[in-house]
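Q: what sequence does this backbone want?
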């Protein structure tokens, strides 16, 4: 079968993905992508071979991912399945994603760093690592499906996962089309309860682990504070302006903008035109 590099976050989805790939006879290499804030050294890979730099240990872990605890969970799963497990230091590459997040937030737009991460790192930089270890495929635990093409020269089709409540195909829309033929999405054909039962049946401790919900580099969930610090603690207060150009109020910064707008401008009142952030 094929050699596959699998992004293992320490969660139940990527852990069961590893199990499914092993069951299918693939040569699986687990990779933990460490790409958050500056951390301390965490885990080792039990398998032989040169280790790439490792960083970890999120001080505040709030349903995020990529902390030392997650790295340890991934290592235990890899040990149980008998596959190698490496941690990659992608902090320098991930700095671009943090800059994107701060820039979009500062422009009053809604960033989605997970989509950018999938495009630039998981199905971008991770292919460089796959090439370095002669791996044919890169896999993740996303709930999406790849359907084989009708002709040899065509590309696979990226479709929704079977579990509509967990479908993640939308976060993969930015992946370059030519990458699709080297991707594997083992859990996309299952529903979440099936994945959890499978994890429990094979004795994985992560079977009931909560899903990751926070942005990995803002595990505290305090997005405005993170942005403010990244912008040198500048004053982020500004004006609230209606569609006709009238200044009708002020806000104290990002965290207060939506709440104040909702209070002042309920249904039937003047539309909010823009919020001048600084």
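A:
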């Amino acid at each position: 079968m094929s050699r596959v590099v699998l992004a293992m976050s320490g969660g139940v989805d990527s852990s069961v993905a590893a199990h499914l790939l092993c069951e299918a006879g693939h040569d699986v290499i687990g990779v933990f992508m460490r790409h958050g804030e500056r951390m301390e050294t965490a885990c080792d890979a039990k398998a032989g071979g040169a280790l790439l730099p490792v960083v970890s240990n999120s001080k505040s872990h709030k349903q995020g991912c990529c902390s030392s605890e997650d790295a340890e969970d991934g290592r235990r799963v890899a040990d149980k399945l008998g596959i190698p497990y490496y941690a990659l230091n992608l902090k320098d590459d991930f700095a671009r994603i943090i800059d994107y997040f701060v820039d979009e937030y500062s422009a009053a737009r809604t960033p989605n760093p997970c989509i950018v991460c999938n495009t630039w790192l998981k199905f971008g930089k991770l292919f460089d690592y796959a090439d370095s270890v002669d791996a044919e495929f890169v896999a993740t635990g996303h709930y999406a499906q790849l359907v084989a093409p009708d002709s040899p020269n065509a590309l696979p089709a990226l479709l929704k996962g079977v579990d509509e409540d967990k479908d993640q195909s939308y976060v993969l829309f930015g992946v370059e089309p030519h990458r699709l033929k080297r991707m594997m999405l083992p859990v996309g054909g299952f529903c979440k309860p099936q994945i959890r039962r499978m994890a429990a049946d094979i004795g994985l401790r992560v079977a009931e682990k909560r899903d990751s919900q926070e942005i990995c580099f803002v595990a505290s969930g305090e997005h405005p504070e993170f942005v403010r610090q990244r912008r040198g603690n500048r004053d982020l207060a500004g004006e609230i302006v209606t569609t006709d150009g009238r200044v009708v109020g002020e806000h104290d910064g990002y965290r207060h903008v939506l709440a104040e707008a909702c209070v002042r401008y309920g249904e039937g009142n003047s539309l909010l035109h823009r919020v001048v952030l600084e």
